[in-house]
Write a structure and sequence with these properties.
The complex is a heterodimer of chains A (about 280) and B (about 250). Chain A has about 280 residues and is of the alpha/beta class. Chain A is built from ten helices and six strands, in the order H-E-H-H-E-H-H-E-H-E-H-H-E-E-H-H. In chain A, about 50% of the residues lie in helices and about 10% in strands. Chain A is globular. The N and C termini of chain A lie far apart (about 65 Å). Classes of the chains: A alpha/beta (about 280), B alpha/beta (about 250). The interface between A and B is large, with 51 and 50 residues. Chain B: This is ditrans,polycis-polyprenyl diphosphate synthase [(2E,6E)-farnesyldiphosphate specific].
C-alpha cells in the first residue's frame, strides 16, 4: 500500500517537474537556442567513490544521467548533441576497467536499438565517431548496427565519440583529403586533362569535410562536468567559437538547471560570437 | 460552410438551416479570435519573462564583477598572505587569448606582460584572431624591454636565470590554415614519391609537417582568455589538448 503511494507521489513529482521544465524551455525558446551542444562526461569514477559504489556502477549512473540530459536537450529544441564517451587515451587505464566499460557500452548500444528506447521516441539518428578499428569486435559490430538501424531517423542527431581524440581526427581528415586529391588528379590525368596538381590545393573546407564530426555543425556549447577546465583532446578544431562551461558538479549529478544556465550564457553572448564567426 | 451563405442570409433568403449554421460559424470565429488573443498575450508574457530573466542574470554577473574587482584590489594590496608566494613553476608556457578589438590597446598588453614577468612567467604566447598583436610586435617588444621572440631563444637551460620573457605571437591563420598548408606539404611529399599504396599518416607525421611549415609545437599549460566569454577564438587546435582554459 505504502509503495503504491510513494510511486504515485514520485509520478506526480515527475509530472510537475516535466511541466515546470516545459515552461522554462518555452521561455528560453524566445531567444536563440543552441543547435549543437557537446558534453564531456567527467566524474563517474569520483561519484562512485563518493557514494561507495563499485567503479562500474558510477558509469551506469552516468549513463542514466546522459539519457536525462539528452531528453532535456531535445525537448529544448537542440537538434545535435555530441558526447565524449571514450578517448583513445582512456585505453591506457587498467584492463579490467577498460573491459567493464566496453561491456557496458555494448549493452547500452544494443539498448539504444530497441523499439521503446529514447532514440526512436525522439527520432534520433545515432553516429559513432572515432577510430572504430581500435574497439573490440562485438562493440564495433553493435555500433555499426545501431548506426544502420537509426539511419532513417531525421528529427535529431546524437554523435557518440568513441576511441576519439581531436588530433587523431585532424590527422585522419588530412589523410583522407590527401587521398581524395590524389584520386582526383589520377582521374583527371587519365582522362587526358593534364591537370597540374598545384592548381588545386587542399584548403580548410576540404579538411573539414573529412572530419568525423562533419555530420553536425560546430558546437555552440561544450559542457565539461567536475570542474575541469581542459578540453582533453575533444573537438579542439570545432570549438573555435564555442562557449566552454565547466560546472563543478560530477557528471552523474548534472541536472537541467546546469543546462538552463549554459543556454542563458549562450544567449547572452550570442551576438558577440556570431560577429566573431563572420570575421573569421 | 463558405462565406457565400452569409451573403445569402443578408439578402433575406428563407434558409433557416443555413442561419443556424452561420450562427455556429460566427461563434466559432469568436472562439478562434479569443484563442488567438490568448496565444498572443501568452507569447508576450513569455517574452517579458525572458527579458526579466536576462536582466536578473545581468545583475548577477555585475555583482560578481564587483566582488572580483574588490578581491583583485585586496590581493594587489598584499592583504592575502597566500598570494605572496605563488608557485609558478608548473606554468612553463602560458597562452593569452585577447579579443582583437581589445588587442589594439597596446599599453594594456604591455602592462599585462610586465605583471607576468614580475610573477615569474618566462614564456608567453599571445593570441588574437586578427593578428593585431603580431602586427605591433616590434612596438610591444621595444616598449617592454626585457623581451625576446620565442623563436630566437635557443638555449632553454632551466638553471640559467632567465632575465627576459620569451614571447610568441599567434593569429587565426596559424590554426586551421596552417593545417591546410601542412596537408598540402604532405600531399606533395606523398604524390611526388609516386607511391601507389594508400598513405598512412600518424599523429607524429602530422606534427612534423606542422613544424616544417614553421609552427611551434609547444603546448601551453594554462590559457587565460580575456573577453566576455570563455572561448579560445580559434587558437591552433593541436596545441591545446590538455591546456587548462580559464
Amino acid at each position: 500500500m505504502d509503495k503504491g503511494r510513494t510511486n504515485q507521489a514520485t509520478q506526480m513529482f515527475e509530472n510537475l517537474g516535466g511541466i515546470l521544465r516545459k515552461f522554462i524551455f518555452s521561455i528560453l525558446s524566445i531567444g536563440p537556442v543552441p543547435s549543437h551542444i557537446a558534453f564531456i562526461m567527467d566524474g563517474n569514477r569520483r561519484y562512485a567513490k563518493k557514494q561507495n559504489l563499485i567503479d562500474g556502477d558510477g558509469h551506469r549512473t552516468g549513463f542514466s544521467a546522459l539519457m536525462n540530459m539528452l531528453k532535456y536537450c531535445y525537448e529544448l529544441g537542440t537538434k545535435h548533441v555530441t558526447v565524449y564517451a571514450f578517448s583513445i587515451d582512456n585505453f591506457k587505464r587498467s584492463p579490467e576497467e577498460v573491459q567493464s566499460i566496453m561491456q557496458l557500452m555494448q549493452e547500452k548500444i544494443e539498448g539504444l536499438i530497441e523499439e521503446e528506447s529514447i532514440v526512436n521516441r525522439y527520432g534520433i539518428r545515432v553516429y559513432f565517431l572515432g577510430d572504430l578499428k581500435l574497439l573490440n569486435k562485438p562493440v564495433r559490430l553493435a555500433a555499426e548496427r545501431a548506426m544502420g538501424a537509426t539511419a532513417k531517423n531525421s528529427k535529431a542527431v546524437l554523435s557518440i565519440c568513441i576511441a576519439y581524440t581531436s588530433l587523431d581526427e585532424i590527422t585522419h581528415a588530412v589523410q583522407e583529403s590527401v587521398e581524395e586529391k590524389c584520386d582526383e588528379i589520377r582521374v583527371l590525368n587519365t582522362s587526358g586533362a593534364g591537370y597540374h596538381h598545384r592548381e588545386h590545393l587542399i584548403n580548410v573546407t576540404d579538411i573539414e569535410e573529412h572530419m568525423y564530426t562533419a555530420v553536425a555543425p560546430n558546437p555552440d556549447i561544450i559542457i565539461r562536468t567536475s570542474g575541469e577546465t581542459r578540453l582533453s583532446n575533444f573537438l579542439l578544431w570545432q570549438s573555435a567559437f564555442c562557449i566552454l562551461y565547466s560546472p563543478s558538479v560530477l557528471w552523474p549529478e548534472i541536472s537541467v538547471w546546469h543546462l538552463v544556465w549554459a543556454v542563458l550564457d549562450f544567449q547572452r553572448n550570442y551576438s558577440y560570437l556570431e560577429e566573431k564567426k563572420k570575421q573569421a | 460552410m463558405s462565406i457565400y451563405h452569409v451573403y445569402d442570409l443578408n439578402r433575406g433568403l428563407n434558409v433557416p438551416k443555413r442561419r443556424t449554421n452561420c450562427r455556429i460559424m460566427g461563434l466559432g470565429a469568436e472562439v478562434q479570435k479569443v484563442l488567438h488573443w490568448i496565444a498572443q498575450s501568452g507569447k508576450i508574457g513569455l517574452c517579458l519573462l525572458w527579458i526579466i530573466l536576462h536582466l536578473i542574470i545581468g545583475i548577477w554577473y555585475f555583482a560578481v564583477d564587483i566582488v572580483r574587482a574588490i578581491e583583485s584590489y585586496l590581493i594587489s594590496s598584499g592583504l592575502f598572505k597566500r598570494y605572496k608566494a605563488l608557485d609558478i613553476s608548473k606554468v612553463r608556457y602560458l597562452a593569452i587569448v585577447i579579443d582583437s578589438e581589445e588587442a589594439r590597446q597596446t599599453s594594456k598588453i604591455i602592462e599585462l606582460l610586465r605583471w607576468l614577468a614580475a610573477i615569474g612567467i618566462k614564456s608567453v604566447c599571445l593570441y588574437d584572431p586578427d593578428g593585431v598583436m603580431k602586427k605591433f610586435k616590434e612596438a610591444i617588444m621595444a616598449r617592454l624591454g626585457d623581451a625576446k621572440l620565442s623563436e630566437e631563444v635557443t638555449v632553454n637551460d632551466p638553471l640559467l636565470d632567465q632575465k627576459f620573457i620569451a614571447l610568441e605571437f599567434v593569429s587565426f591563420l596559424d590554426g586551421k590554415e596552417a593545417v591546410a598548408k601542412a596537408a598540402n606539404l604532405l600531399f606533395d611529399k606523398y604524390y611526388l614519391a609516386g607511391d601507389q599504396e594508400k598513405p598512412i599518416f600518424t599523429e607524429s607525421i602530422m606534427v612534423e609537417a606542422l613544424k616544417a611549415i614553421g609552427c611551434v609545437e609547444t603546448e601551453p599549460d594554462l590559457m587565460l582568455v580575456y573577453g566576455p566569454t570563455r572561448c579560445h577564438l580559434g587558437f591552433p587546435a593541436w596545441r591545446i589538448r590538455y591546456t587548462e582554459i580559464v
